[in-house]
Design goal:
This protein has 13 helices and 27 strands. The chain is of the alpha+beta class.
């Protein structure tokens, strides 16, 4: 345990889902951390709701999946699907959007949807069960300094004025787009040209709830309006009792008192209804990415490393994948089994994936929507509009299918020349180096994901013949488990042996005789 002293192995600044998830993943590996979070309780703003199948795998391994599903605010039998509408929410044209169930066979868990504050509460409760982690809620980081021996993080109690200095081996900034850690580490950002002011409205409405009964099973609604040039108006359910939130572009300089926000909602929906506002806030729509994710002993993750419009539910899921990637690498370094290149591979893998997510998915969707709205108008040519609208529904399916973040060709993953990590890919049951492992049922009745350990796992047709890699792992101090796969699984994976990383990505796949040589590269040594 980090104990009552001011020393830890890792200080994590920012206790949202990314920072708390990272603390859990480290604690499960025996790494002592202190989590510094400025809010004593989760803030009741319903953002970051869409959790993918891949994200729910993290919650499974973090021991929080059951509790998270029980915290859901929308009953499971209702559904958590999405919809895109043209002109207004209640207009004539709409289709299903982000059908994540299409890729369900490639993941171990189902996706989920609940407000971020509910997710944070579950993660906080799970963290409290782990003795290697200590949380300072109601504290903020004021300064971060580092040298060759470690870091020193000065933290201050927000309400009491007390200060203390925590020393550690590493610091990770999970403290949002205005990250103190990023600034202190001298990490610069590259920003895009999508600067627009957006409003966030949280409200209750029995009238809207009643009108949306015509769309059963839908929990979020994207409205395309020609006047907005591809930028969305977005409604999301918080619950089934009339709780909603809404994002939309507004003119620069808009304040809480300068606009009739009820009228804005009515125009976007295409109908009048009762509105009781619970929150009115603003945020800037832009893309920003840190020019590096590591500076010496300081790392950034989540919104501190990258920010983008909340289009498609990529944000929280991308941040949680940062945590899963970084956790095992920090543990490997602190426990002495990381090679010299392992920590640098965090930046080499995660930064290109975000750049691809921003450019190939979010930014592209804005451009495609803008072009569509400029070219097609049902008032001008209904037949042409309806044909293109039908074609767009197929495009919504392809977006889900082609979003497959992978680390092909990273410094610690073998891959084709000229290829590198990307969010663009294809789903497959085959075990491909750099790609997420697909689930399979083993001969003993378990899913392969139930056989994966906290370290590396070797899946082999003949576990008894794996002495070479066992000896290599023992020599290097690398945690390794070996699990048997039968002929059917071997055929599905297309390999005699598969080395799986602690984050469930395939490190290597090939003939069993070559498995012993795979660990060095996978841990950044070769």
């Amino acid at each position: 345990m980090a104990g009552d002293g001011d020393r830890a192995q890792v200080v994590i600044v920012g206790g949202g889902p990314v920072g708390t998830g990272l603390a859990i993943a480290l604690a499960q590996r025996g790494v002592e951390s202190v989590l510094v979070e400025r809010y004593r309780t989760p803030q009741p703003i319903p953002k970051g709701q869409n959790l993918t199948q891949r994200t729910m795998e993290h919650f499974h391994f973090w021991g929080a999946e059951k509790a998270l599903r029980e915290a859901r605010t929308i009953p499971r039998d209702y559904g958590i699907g999405g919809m895109t509408a043209y002109g207004t929410l209640l207009g004539e044209y709409h289709y299903d959007w982000l059908q994540r169930e299409l890729v369900r066979p490639y993941y171990f868990t189902d996706n989920e949807r609940l407000p971020q504050y509910a997710t944070e509460a579950v993660l906080r409760a799970r963290l409290a069960e782990l003795p290697a982690a200590r949380a300072l809620y109601g504290w903020s980081a004021e300064a971060v300094k580092q040298d060759g021996d470690g870091v020193r993080v000065t933290v201050a109690e927000r309400d009491g004025g007390a200060r203390r200095v925590i020393s550690a081996d590493y610091v990770v900034g999970c403290d949002g787009s205005r990250s103190t850690v990023r600034e202190a580490a001298g990490i610069t950002q590259t920003r895009s040209d999508h600067d627009r002011l957006m409003v966030l409205l949280v409200f209750r409405s029995e009238g809207l709830n009643e009108r949306l009964r015509r769309y059963p099973g839908k929990s979020y609604y994207n409205v395309l309006h020609p006047d907005l040039q591809g930028y969305w108006q977005f409604f999301g359910r918080v619950d089934l009792e009339g709780g909603f939130f809404f994002h939309a572009p507004v003119p620069a300089g808009t304040t809480k008192d300068s606009m009739d926000f009820a009228a804005l909602l009515h125009r976007a929906a295409g109908a009048r209804f009762d509105v009781e506002f619970q929150h009115i806030g603003f945020w800037d729509l832009r893309f920003a990415i840190a020019d590096r994710y590591r500076a010496g002993r300081a790392f950034v993750a989540g919104d501190a490393a990258h920010s983008h419009p909340p289009y498609g539910g990529y944000g929280i899921n991308t941040g949680l994948e940062d945590a899963a990637n970084l956790a095992w690498k920090l543990a490997a370094d602190l426990q002495g089994w990381a090679g010299p290149g392992l920590l640098d591979s965090y930046d080499a893998e995660r930064r290109p994936v975000f750049a691809s997510t921003a450019g190939d998915f979010i930014g592209r969707s804005i451009e495609v929507d803008r072009d569509f709205l400029a070219a097609f108008d049902p008032a001008r040519d209904r037949a042409a509009f309806e044909a293109e609208w039908a074609a767009r529904q197929g495009g919504a399916k392809s977006e889900v299918a082609s979003f497959e973040p992978n680390y092909e060709g990273s410094p610690i993953i073998p891959g084709p020349a000229g290829r590198g990590p990307s969010a663009l890919g294809s789903h497959s049951l085959a075990a491909r180096p750099g790609h997420h492992l697909a689930p399979q049922m083993l001969a003993d009745g378990r899913n392969v994901f139930e056989a994966l350990g906290a370290g590396f796992t070797l899946l082999a047709a003949d576990p008894g013949g794996m002495d070479a890699i066992r000896e290599e792992a023992s020599r290097r101090g690398i945690p390794l488990e070996v699990a048997a796969i039968g002929p059917a699984v071997q055929e599905a994976y297309g390999a005699e042996a598969i080395l799986v990383r602690p984050d469930q990505f395939v490190a290597w796949a090939g003939p069993a005789a070559e498995a012993g040589d795979a660990l060095g590269r996978a841990t950044g040594s070769d």
